[in-house]
Amino acid sequence: MSSFSNFSSDIKQYLMVTTNYWVFTLTDGALRMLVVLHFHQLGYSPLQIAMLFLFYEFFGVVTNLLGGWLGAKLGLNKTMNTGLFLQIVALGLLLVPAHLLTVAWVMMAQAFSGIAKDLNKMSAKSSVKLLVADDAKDQLYHWVAVLTGSKNALKGAGFFLGGVLLTLVGFKLALIIMMSALCIIWLMSLMLLKKDLGKSKAKPKFSQLFSKSREINYLSAARLFLFGSRDIWFVIALPVYLATQFNWDHWQVGSFLASWIIGYGLVQAIAPKITNRNDSKTPDGKTATFWAFVLLLVIGFIAMAMWQNMYPEIILLTGLLIFGVVFAINSSLHSYLIVSLACRDSVSIDVGFYYMANAMGRLIGTILSGWIFQLYGLVGCLWASMIFVGATCMISSGMIAPKNKVNG
Fold it and tell me: 291: Cβ–Cβ under 8 A, 6 or more apart, which residues?
């Protein structure tokens, strides 16, 4: 504690924001695995289980759009703490007797969880912008990369945690344990986060919800297609394909996907060392376009090889690992660019708009994943993913470097 007291105020705030984000993300990943496994045990069909997450993704779109405006109006400390509280509510809603856990009830609980997740994420990403000086671009890139990468690594760890808790203590006690951890962090956050963090000096108007920045609009559109390209084949098509075509058990599918997400997060955290290795400049639109093109080559190769049925298990698993590395670099670059491009006095509005596009891409990708896989199989999903990555490339080329943007 004595060493913590020696840190600067900004470092203390960053550590509090990061701890808040980490614990929330760990419980969010665990909750997703708990819901999938528990309701599978109760006899829910795969389609019913998928429906449980529909509101989770849908309200991510709404929350990011409105959450940014609320963050600027009320302060990021309030939106972050509200997100924590709503996650506690979501967990509590699932503690009702088993016969009350209908699809509609669980969808409502997942709606609260979706709102909570995006309030917390938007608040955390926006806060970093305010804790770094405008001219410290390298430090900003590093802090954003660490926050983003660690979040995804912990989300994968949360999958493991959910499975372990369900096995060792059961569904309800697992929920109580996670609620207790969140309550502790929520109380700490209420006491330690600055009360005016992210609060706009001017009264933000509701009409400002949609970004008027050309660069942010381009980046948001690129983000929509980027995350749509991943979820088109990753969310439903891939796990079903691994189970049906490769005859993997459920624990093998879950463990592999959890390991992929952890590795994906670790790559995100070290992305600055990869993208800045031969160039002292911080990333810009050209950097994002280059890495989007690399991703296009990767997904194109996987789609072509799977279409020709060339060693499908080797190609798919190896390709998935390479795709994960390149996708993680793209995601980390985008996360830095939005924080860098955002206007300091309305950072939460700009970041909220951007993550609204992110959530929309995930929602579209999730729906297309089930529909295209049902009609055309995994190969059809891979070709659709390639089209989305191609759109990301074209849109990214329209962005300008953040150093040319004057922050407000």
Answer: 275, 326, 329, 330, 333
Could you give phi then psi for residue 234, rounded to 5 degrees? -95, -35
- Termini Cα distance of the chain: 37
Q: Classify each residue of 187-212 as buried b or exposed e, where b means 16 or more C-beta atoms within 10 Å of its C-beta.
A: eebeeebbeebbbbeeebeeebeebe
- Give per-residue burial for 275-295: e unless 16+ CB within 10 Å, then b: bbeeeeebbbbebbbbbbbbb
Query: Residue 408: pLDDT above 50?
Result: no
Q: Which residue matches tokens 């400049």?
A: 281
Residue with tokens 């999730």: 366
pTM of the model: 0.74
Q: Report whether CATH 1.20.1250.20 matches the domain 10-200+207-404.
A: yes
Confidence of residue 130 (pLDDT cuts 50, 70, 90): low
Express each pLDDT in 106-123 by its tens digit: 888 888 988 888 888 777
Task: Report pLDDT for 401.
Answer: 46
Rounded to an integer, what distance in angstroms lies between the CA atom of residue 361 and that of residue 231? 8
| Sign of the alpha-carbon dihedral angle for 212, 115, 231, 364 | negative
Q: Which residue has the tokens 């390709």?
A: 319
Among 14-18, 62-66, 119-123, 227-231, top mean pLDDT goes to 227-231
Provide the phi-psi class of 97: left if phi over 0, else alpha when psi is between -120 and 50, else beta.
beta
CB of 38 closer than 8 Å to CB of 166: yes
Q: How far apart are CA 30 and CA 156, in angstroms?
A: 9
Nearest-Å Rg of the Cα atoms of the chain is: 21
Give the pLDDT confidence of 221-258 residue by residue, as tens digits.
999 999 999 989 887 788 878 878 888 876 677 678 77
Mean pLDDT of 263-268: 84
Q: What ranges do the domains of the chain cover? A: 10-200+207-404
